[in-house]
Specification:
Largest sheet: 2 strands, antiparallel
Shape: elongated
Strand order of the largest sheet: 1-2
Order of helices and strands: EEHHHHH
Structural class: mainly alpha
Number of helices: 5
Oligomer: single chain
Length: about 120
C-alpha cells in the first residue's frame, strides 16, 4: 500500500514583540524562559507542562530553531540575560524598591512559622 504524503514547512512559532523580546507560540512566554529551563535539563514534555499555553509542538519548534541557529540565538540569549541583570540592578538601587523590600522582610519576619498538621 502506498500512501501519498505532502510535506510542508510549518512557520516558526517565534515572534519579536515591540520591546525586542522573542515570544513563543503566539503567547507572552519569552524564548529565553523556555531555553533557560531547557538548558537546565527539562525535557520538551516538561516544558509543555510548565507552559501549557505554548504547547508541545511549539516547544519542540523553538528548541529546533535554537539548534539550527545556535550562534545568533546564543547572542540573543546573552543580550537578554545582560538586560535582565541591568534591570534588576537598577531596581535594587531604587530607594522605593529598597523600602518595599525592607517592608516585605519585616512582614515575613513577623509572621508565625507555618507548622503542618
Amino acid at each position: 500500500m502506498t500512501v501519498m504524503v505532502t510535506i510542508h514547512a510549518d512557520p516558526v512559532p517565534l515572534a519579536v514583540d515591540e520591546h525586542g523580546v522573542i515570544r513563543v507560540g503566539g503567547t507572552r512566554v519569552p524564548f529565553e524562559r523556555i531555553m533557560g529551563y531547557y538548558f537546565q535539563g527539562e525535557s520538551a514534555e516538561e516544558l509543555a507542562a510548565d507552559f501549557p499555553t505554548v504547547g508541545l509542538a511549539n516547544v519542540h519548534a523553538a528548541i529546533a530553531y535554537y539548534l539550527h541557529n545556535r550562534e545568533d540565538m546564543d547572542a540573543y540569549l546573552t543580550a537578554a540575560r545582560e538586560e535582565e541583570e541591568r534591570v534588576i540592578a537598577e531596581a535594587e538601587r531604587d530607594p522605593r524598591q529598597q523600602a518595599f523590600r525592607r517592608m516585605l522582610d519585616e512582614r515575613l519576619a513577623a509572621r508565625e512559622p507555618f507548622v503542618p498538621r
